[in-house]
User: Which sequence fits this backbone?
């Protein structure tokens, strides 16, 4: 069970890193924080405002933060990691679906851009739905890995 938890934590952190890549890549390349903020700001602002009031970057940053929090909680063995993961999933799915619905330039250049490889582009289902399905499957693994196994107690043993 610990190995499953480690694999799921690494998978969630890898996905959060992939989402945060537009902000992290200039920092890794040696550019200053202002260049990273400018690039990430341009990526995030490409989505404009979602639902008329919510800027796209807020859902983007919220999803990244909640994915990292859920991975840290899962790594620590907290059973509430699944709640943080599914909040992050809702923010991520809302952003992706809103950008997909907007279409045009915003969906093509926003932070939720998903490059469709040749293998996925020939399937009858859009890659967005494959990604959301994979994230739901990862969420099910988070739920499984965050469950605690009951320990057998001898009579008279204090619970701590």
Assistant:
């Amino acid at each position: 069970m610990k190995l499953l938890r480690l694999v799921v934590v690494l998978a969630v952190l890898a996905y959060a890193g992939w989402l945060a890549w537009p902000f992290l890549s200039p920092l890794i390349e040696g550019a200053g924080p202002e260049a990273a903020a400018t690039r990430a700001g341009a990526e995030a602002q490409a989505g404009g405002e979602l639902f008329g009031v919510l800027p796209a970057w807020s859902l983007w940053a919220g999803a990244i933060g909640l994915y990292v929090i859920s991975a840290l909680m899962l790594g620590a063995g907290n059973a509430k990691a699944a709640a943080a993961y599914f909040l992050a999933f809702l923010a991520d799915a809302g952003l992706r679906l809103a950008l997909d619905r907007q279409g045009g330039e915003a969906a093509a250049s926003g932070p939720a851009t998903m490059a469709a490889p040749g293998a996925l582009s020939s399937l009858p289902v859009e890659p967005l739905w494959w990604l959301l399905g994979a994230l739901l499957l990862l969420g099910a693994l988070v739920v499984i890995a965050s469950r605690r196994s009951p320990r057998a107690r001898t009579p008279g043993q204090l619970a701590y």
The beta strands are 49-50, 54-55. The chain has a mean pLDDT of 78.
